Amino acid sequence: MSGQVLAGQPRPDDGTTASGILPRQRARRAAHPKRARPARVQAARATATVEVVIPVHNEERALPGCVAVLHEYLAARLPFDWLITIVDNASTDRTKTVARGLARQWRGVRVLALDARGKGRAVRTAWARSRADVVVYMDVDLSTGLEALLPMVASLVVGHSDVAIGSRLAPGARTVRGPKRELMSRVYNALLRLTHRTRFRDAQCGFKAARTDVIRPLLARVQDDTWFFDTELLLLAEHNGLRVLEVPVDWVEDVDSRVDVTGTVATNLRGLVRLARAKASGAARIAELPFRPAPRPTHPDAVLSVPGMPHLRNLLPFCLVGSVATLMTLGLFTAFRTWWPPLVANLVAVTLSALFNTEANRRFTFDGWSSRLPRVHVQVVLVFGLYCGFTCGALLALHSAVVAPSRWVELAVLVGSSAVGTLGRFALLSSWVFRSLPEPAPVAQPTEEVPA
Questions:
Q1: What is the side-by-side strand order in the sheet with 49-56?
Q2: Domain-wise residue ranges, the chain
Q3: β-pairing, 250-252 with 49-56?
Q4: Which of 230, 250, 260, 301 does the annotation list as catalytic?
Q5: CA 390 to CA 44: how far, in whole Å?
Q6: Cα 185 to Cα 187: distance, rounded to the nearest angstrom
Q7: Superfamily of the domain at 49-281
């Protein structure tokens, strides 16, 4: 059964939000005798509400066809109540007039008019004012096939994902576009993975959705009002542990584009630098986001693995970083040894390599962990002191046992002590410095019911 237009929707063009959304229904669940009742009971909805936002600027030609196709698809295929919102951001042609005509022609279409330009501003304003359970935005050219909409929305409605995005670069995606745009897209997303270690593959596809209760705290922190809005939103979402679902899409390029490629590249590069600084300083953490509990077994009698084993997933990147740091230590020690005694040369070499090692592990091994940075820095200094003392102690033991050992023997002892010290550093960093924060105590919730 297809969904319906949200009942009682106004048709203003002054920014009035959607209203008349059906109340959610609740379900009572029996607890297993061996399984604790969840702290929060997920609502079982008779229906969900979806608001689809179309940001437009000077799109009088493309808008009518977009609304007609989208309205027909939603009415026939989307099994949720829905609303289409056209957001005009300071168009200078007849776009606003055309949009108002479409709102009068089609039930379930409204217009929101803004006085300032910016795709990001348009999406943020409409999403922030929405009363729907799920908010969506898509480009007016409908380059992305609408078949991907329902998989995205369904994952958000059931609470599995927090943000859902269409991807032209995910396995299974099919795209028809020119080589220039293809190259630029792949280079940009590769740059994201290199500089921010993103897990999603396509930040710029104009086809995204989110749970409204999750997206509002993010929208308050996103600063960009233009084309970097998408990237900034996703970087903040992933950095704060939200689950981002990536759905492969069919995508056909529309060459009638309003994108200023040169200006967009410059804006994006500045935005990436700004977000990197925010992550490093801890300013990118958002405390207001809904709490998502750690994974727990579904089966009440599941046999679990040894506690603490998840730390082993960090061992490989830690070893890679440690190998680079060890080579760096050996190179610096060899250079400094020509001027200084072994203990001084080792202290300077280990200090420099430890700075690299700690920052690389924070970014790559422990996923950009940045909470409580002052405490982390103090703990890192203590761990470094233990590591440096261990390697210096190994060199002292060598010189006390062997008179004038060769440079190769010194290097061998340094490598061995560094390897043992690295394992100790990993244990301390994973279990003490970068340990996961304890989950907050669950809050008892009243029993929730669904009518029979």
A1: 109-114, 81-89, 49-56, 134-138, 207-211, 163-167, 244-248
A2: 49-281, 310-433
A3: unpaired
A4: 230
A5: 58
A6: 6
A7: Spore Coat Polysaccharide Biosynthesis Protein SpsA; Chain A (3.90.550.10)
Terminal-to-terminal C-alpha distance of the chain: 21
Instruction: Check if 230 is active-site.
Output: yes
Taking the C-alpha atoms of residue 433 and residue 255, their distance in angstroms, rounded to an integer, is 51
Mean pLDDT by 10 residues, the chain (452 residues): 53 41 36 40 61 96 96 95 96 96 96 94 96 96 96 95 96 92 90 88 95 94 93 94 95 77 80 88 85 81 64 68 81 86 82 77 61 61 78 84 83 82 75 57 38 40
Rg (the chain; Cα; Å): 27
- Torsion over CA of 123, 128, 130 and 132, rounded to 10 degrees? 100
Structure tokens at 363: 């970014």
Contact between 268 and 228 (Cβ < 8 Å): yes
- How many alpha carbons lie under 13 Å from residue 281 in its C-beta half-sphere? 8
**Chain centre distance of CA 164:** 10
137 bridge partner residues: 53, 208
Q: Nearest CA to 318 among 351, 368, 360, 355? A: 360
What's the CA dihedral at 291, 294, 299, 303 to 10 degrees? -160
Q: What is the pTM of this model?
A: 0.69
pLDDT for 246 equals: 97
* The pair of three-digit structure tokens given for residue 343, joined into one six-digit string: 């203990």
Q: What integer pLDDT is reported at residue 445 of this predicted model?
A: 38
What does the pLDDT read at residue 441?
Answer: 40
Q: How many whole angstroms separate alpha carbon 242 and alpha carbon 221? A: 15
**Nearest Cα residue to 114 out of 126, 129, 100:** 126
